[in-house]
Every structure is written in C-alpha cells, then in structure tokens.
Amino acid sequence: MAFAITQSCCADASCVAACPVNCIHPTPDEPDFTSTDMLFVDPRACIDCGACADACPVDAVHPVERLTGPLAGYAEVNAAYYDDRPVAESVSPLFHEWGPPSFGPGTPAGAEPLDVAVVGTGPAGMYAARELLLHSPSRVTLIDRMATPGGLVRYGVAPDHPATRRIAESFAHMHAHPRVRMRLGVEARPDELSARHDAVVWAVGASASRELGVPGEELPGSVDADTVVGWYNGRPDVPADAVEPASRVVVVGTGNVAIDIARVLTADPDDLAGTPIAPHALVALRSGAARSGVPREVVLLGRRGPETVAATAPELRELLGRAAVPVVVDDHDPRIAPSLDGPGAGLLRDAARTPVDWSAPPAGPRVVFRFHSAPDRIDGVGRVRSVRTVGVDIPAGLVVRAVGHRGRPVPGLPFDDARGVIPHDAGRVAGRPGHYVVGWIKRGASGGIGANRRCAAETVGSLLDDAAAGRLPARRRPWSRWRTAVRG
Ligand SMILES: Cc1cc2nc3c(=O)[nH]c(=O)nc-3n(C[C@H](O)[C@H](O)[C@H](O)COP(=O)(O)OP(=O)(O)OC[C@H]3O[C@@H](n4cnc5c(N)ncnc54)[C@H](O)[C@@H]3O)c2cc1C
Ligand code: SF4
Ligand code: SF4
C-alpha cells in the first residue's frame, strides 16, 4: 500500500521535508514545481509511514485504501505522475540527497529585534510572519481591515472545501505567538506604519474583480465573483440579498473561482447544510430551488476553446465526479470536437458533448461549458434577463463575472496599473525603502495558498538582508506607541 495526495493539496510542500524516502514530487527545487497544481506520492517508493499526512495542513494525504467517493481516483492520479519517469530516477535513495549546506536569512547575533508590521492576515501575510518569527527575533504586528483574520482562506475558499479551510488553524497558532500582536478591523496606511516600525510588509491581496467591459454589466443581477464568494462565505461587507440565485446562472470565466461558484450553486442544499456556508446563502439556495421548481443550471462561458480552460485539474476532477450534476460541453462550434479530442483537452474530454438549445428551459441540475463565447452584452429591463454571445441569447437570471482579480493601489505606494500589482524587486517596494510586498499584491492574482510560502520566503529574505546591511530607514517613533499608528 501507499499514501496518495488528493484534491485539497495547495502545494505548500510541507510534506516534502517530512518524507523519509523522498518520494513526494515535484519538490520545490524541481522544474515542475512552479507549474504544478498539486504534489504526488510515488507509490513505488512510499513506505507507508504516514509522516506526510501528519505534516499536511489541509488533510490532503490519505492511505490509498481509504480513498473513497470523490477521492477514489487519486491513487491513479498520483501513480500516473510517475508513469514516464523511470524507476531509477523516481525511486530515490532511502534518504534525501544532501546538497551544499544552505542557511536561511537571519539577523546578526546580538542585533536589536526588528519591529515589523505585516498588513494582511491572508496566506501571504501569515507565511511572511512565520518566516520573520522563525529566522529572526522580530516582533510582528499583524494588521487586517477585517475583524476576522484569514483573508481568502476565511472569505474565499469554498465552504464545501473544509480540508482547505483547515489551513486557517495552522495560521491561527501564530496569532498567539508571544512576539505577535494582532490589530484587526483597522485600515493600514504606509507613512503612519513606517514611522513606528522598522519595516512594513504589505500582504493586502488582490481584491478588485476585473470587469467585462460590455453593455449591461451594471444591471441588477450582474455581479462579480468576489460578491458571490463573499455572499456564500458570510463576508460582513456583502449584504445577505446581494445575490439572488436563479434557475439559470451564467458565469463568465472558466478558472477555479468560476468552478467553485458553479459547484456551490448546483450543489444539493442538504449537502451544503453541514458546511460553514453562510446561513442566508443556504436559505436562498433552498428557497430558490423550491421556487423555480428545478435545480439550478450553471453555464460557464469561455472566450476561447476547451484547451484554454483556466481551472486546475483537481477542481475539474471534482466537478466532473459528481454523479448528480452532469457536466456538458455545448457542441455549438466545429472547433470544439477537435479540441476535445486533441492532446491539450485535459479532463473535459470525458464530459458529455451535445448542442444545447438555449430557447428551452434549463435542464438542470447541470453545468454547461460553452466555449468560443465571449459575452457581447447583458440584456434586461431593470434586471438581467439574458446574455448575448456569438449570435445567441442565453436566458439567465444571474450573471457572474469571474474573469480574474487585480490588486488595488495602496495610498502612498507606487502601483503598476496595467498589472494591478505594487512594483517590487524581490519583494522590496520600488522607491520605498523599508516597505515590502508579498502574495497576490506582489505577483498578481494567481497561484494557490502554497505559492505564497515561497513568495514570503523571498520577501522576508530581502527584508532581513536589508536589516543586516543597515539599509532599513530609521523609524521616527518608538514601537511602544504603535497604537496610534493604525486607525479604525
Ligand atoms: C474565491 C477564491 C477561492 C480560492 N480557493 C483556493 C483554494 O481552495 N485553495 C488554494 O490553494 N487557493 C485558493 N485560492 C487562492 C488563495 O486564496 C490565494 O493564493 C491567497 O489567498 C492569496 O493570499 P494573500 O495573502 O496575498 O491575499 P488575501 O488572502 O486576499 O489576504 C489579503 C488580506 O489583506 C487584508 N487587507 C487588504 N487591504 C488592507 C488594508 N489596507 N489594511 C488592512 N488590511 C488589508 C484583507 O482584509 C485580507 O485579509 C482562492 C482564491 C479565491 C479568490
Ligand atoms: S507515507 Fe511516508 S514514505 Fe509514503 S509519501 Fe508519506 S512520508 Fe513518504
Ligand atoms: S498541501 Fe502541502 S503538505 Fe499537503 S499534500 Fe499538498 S504539498 Fe503536501
């Protein structure tokens, strides 16, 4: 037997160092690591010790004999990663090969502790705080505008992904660290913070949704993905009536967030009842299904063909694996069949293909992918009624734009408006000594939770190097008076 890594893996690589036989790949120093959605256990080398399962913060690793239901296929998924890797290459020596010693960043012995403000308590802020606490005697002030910490782990990750949300527990250990203090419900400002801290790390995420730029986008019933996700996760600034589920919902986009929304809106409300879904969302999903008489149909519009689907394999595998909710590709365009039969089609080649008659009522519950179909406009009088795309009107009561996120400017810091990020050099904010960036506001809105770990290591490395080299600006006020540095 062996262990296998499953759907909730966020590729943070915690298990790699735990494995005594080096049979989890790709490792962070292997080329595939930057592009992989998840890591894989080599069943030929696994000695079944379970160390990886203990190390995993999101409960993604299980013995293969216990993989049932939606996780059943993951033994094969793990093994398949090693198919084209010869045994001699993949079955490693019993212990890791030791490279030259490498010493992480740190502060010189005897140096005064740094006082660092970390703005944002999402994954990037928490990984940055952890790096600072591990590698230096720094004192860390964690600041967030929300009263509840966690960023997108709390208000983004779907409620039916409880294993992924569990990473919040490992971050929460740091909230009580003796060198950490928490300031929640406050909006941070650069000059005030830098006056009282040696350095400020901005981990403010990318909270603005990209727009479609089509007429009708502003109609009631047309919302962005951020609103829907905040609605079903109970984010305090999203009103309970911000989203009205309809019997047909059009989601523009085919990325992971679009898939999350399709999955939650088509789920049986009884299955969602045991999750942390916001009570008002559950009530609306139940009553919407009862009112319309049919379960919801969600249509995902992709601008290009099936080979360009942005969602990761684990998300698609989960969507395709639900017996009660079929997934259909609308076979409306002669380019679709060759794409689905071609090498780049991925998992969608297993979905049913049929031309969809959009004049008929929704056949839900189901999820329909419609490719080569950028929306031309959203129509309706006083409320969304349909979406016009390549010559067809798709009737819909709710339209969700899920075409990506971008960062918002932080007053007083430079901003790259084209990319929606704060410009930086290895995490150092351009032209603002003592200010650093990490996470989605640094890299742009892509990558799962684990990607922020490496990103934080780079940023904190730069910060500690600057501290050791005397490149941090002198702060103007003592740390003890920090309370006035942030405003509610
Ligand atoms: C809907 C959705 C679902 C996702 N699901 C998954 C998943 O299942 N698995 C996975 O691996 N990845 C998932 N991701 C990706 C993952 O959430 C991101 O990689 C990660 O959250 C980015 O971390 P961050 O810390 O940069 O940003 P965020 O998590 O957005 O954190 C930013 C924090 O900064 C705070 N903030 C912003 N501005 C200020 C200010 N001026 N003052 C004080 N505080 C401020 C915010 O309140 C927030 O708490 C998902 C992303 C989205 C959008
Ligand atoms: S069970 Fe043990 S040997 Fe197998 S992958 Fe996990 S840590 Fe490695
Ligand atoms: S989430 Fe991290 S620890 Fe868990 S399986 Fe994935 S890479 Fe390993």
Automatic annotation (TrEMBL):
Cofactor: FAD
InterPro entries: 4Fe4S_Fe-S-bd, 4Fe4S_Fe_S_CS, FAD/NAD-bd_sf, FAD/NAD-binding_dom, Ferredox_Rdtase
UniProt keyword S-adenosyl-L-methionine, yes or no: no
PROSITE patterns per record: 4FE4S_FER_1, 4FE4S_FER_2
Catalysed reactions, semicolon-separated: 2 reduced [2Fe-2S]-[ferredoxin] + NADP(+) + H(+) = 2 oxidized [2Fe-2S]-[ferredoxin] + NADPH
The protein's name in its UniProt record: ferredoxin--NADP(+) reductase
Annotated Pfam families: Fer4 (PF00037), Pyr_redox_2 (PF07992)
Protein source organism: Pseudonocardia nematodicida
TM ranges: none
